[in-house]
Specification:
alpha+beta; globular
Length: about 140
């Protein structure tokens, strides 16, 4: 059951996701893949480097599970291995609550913070994370 008010169609959510991907300066091919067929790519953070790659079956299953449970649209995933939390997957998403989108875009522009559903070995939940563009992908700063 979604915690968000359903105000937008899937197509509207997809357009909003593309807008956010552009704001976050994701690689052009990553944006085109998502625009073409909804492909969600992964930014894999290893130290200070980021590697872009297509989602594998495990990531696709995480995305599908989240989208079905929360009625949201995932547009990118960040993966990092943290000494404190272990493996951590941050699913960047657009909710169907379109009345929030304008303020969320402004928030991304002004602070670099973006909403994500975070799954880790410690706990899961929706939170804000700070993401920085790097080499066409994103790294998680906090």
């Amino acid at each position: 059951m979604s915690i968000y008010k359903k105000e937008a169609s899937l197509e509207e959510m997809k357009r909003e996701a593309i807008s956010r991907m552009e704001l976050l300066k994701l690689d052009t091919q990553t944006i085109q893949d998502f625009e073409r067929d909804g492909s969600v790519n992964l930014s894999q953070q290893l130290g200070d480097q980021v590697f872009l790659q297509p989602s594998d079956d495990e990531i696709s299953e995480r995305v599908k599970r989240f989208e079905q449970e929360y009625d949201c649209l995932v547009y990118h995933v960040l993966w990092a291995d943290s000494p404190m939390a272990g493996e951590c997957w941050s699913l960047l998403f657009v909710s169907p609550a379109s009345s929030d989108w304008s303020s969320e875009r402004k928030y991304i522009k002004s602070s670099g913070l973006v909403y994500a559903y975070v799954e880790s070995e410690m706990e899961d939940g929706v939170s804000e994370i700070m993401a920085e563009p790097r080499d066409g992908g994103l790294i998680r700063l906090g």
